[in-house]
Amino acid sequence: MHIAIAGNIGSGKTTLTTRLAKHYKWTPHFESVDDNPYLNDFYKDMQRWSFNLQVFFLNSRFAQVQEMRESGKKIIQDRTIYEDAYIFAPNLHAMGLMTTRDFENYLSLFELMDKFVAAPDLLIYLRASVPTLVTQIQKRGRDYEEAIRLDYLTRLNERYEAWISTYDKGKLLIIDVDNNNFHEDPEDFSGIVQRIDAEIHGLF
Question: In this structure, are strands 171-176 and 122-127 parallel, antiparallel, or unpaired?
């Protein structure tokens, strides 16, 4: 079984992945952040490093998918390969932070990889407003995230909503993070678990 959690920067993906992995005894797969050699440079100079960053994420995520397939375990994944291709790379291109030549090269790589990628059995989307995202980003205090602009988060949110509105690769569960404090409230977390159980077992 493969469960994936999608959502903007600061929406709570890593926290929810960690908690659900512990609750269900699933194997968690996290996004390569701390060992990403491009992230610091990217936030300082997005135009120069956007292509490098996105190719690193694409490669890392594809390797994750292959590893998950071969493991035969029940997996919960923090962020999907689709978000890189449908949200982050197109957004960088639209903002003029990735050249058309690089973007087309990137897309051709993704389209090749996508033929070998199986969609998750359940996609959980964490929907959050920009003020909520900013609050969460400030709480975790990562130095390289201090330079993230509000308009960047807003554009990403718009792309997430557009992607989710047409998502048809499998089951989808949407959680409104503005009204769900699963980080700290046991009842809110329990409510998410109940909704996941219903999706997994086909109950409505």
Answer: parallel
At 194, list the tokens: 């109940």
The CATH number assigned to the domain holding 175 equals 3.40.50.300
> Tokens for 203?
């109950």
Report the domain count for the chain: 1
Q: What is the 3-state secondary structure (H, E, C) of 139-196?
A: HHCCHHHCCCCHHHHHHHHHHHHHHHHCCCCCEEEEEEHHHCCCCCCHHHHHHHHHHH
Q: Which of 152, 16, 144, 11 is nearest to 87 (CA)?
A: 152
Residue-wise pLDDT for 97-114, tens only, equals 999 999 999 999 999 999
User: What values do phi and psi take at 125, rounded to 5?
Assistant: -105, 125
Summarised one tens digit per residue, pLDDT across range 28-71 is: 998 766 678 898 898 889 899 999 999 999 998 898 888 888 88
Q: Coil, helix or strand for 59?
A: helix
78 labelled catalytic: yes
SS3 123: strand
| Annotated catalytic residue within 41, 78, 102, 197 | 78
- C-alpha dihedral sign at 150, 137, 96, 161: negative
How many other CB atoms sit within 10 Å of the CB of residue 44?
A: 11
Residues 110 and 84 sit within 8 Å (Cβ to Cβ): yes
Domain of residue 28, residue span = 2-200
pLDDT at 147: 64
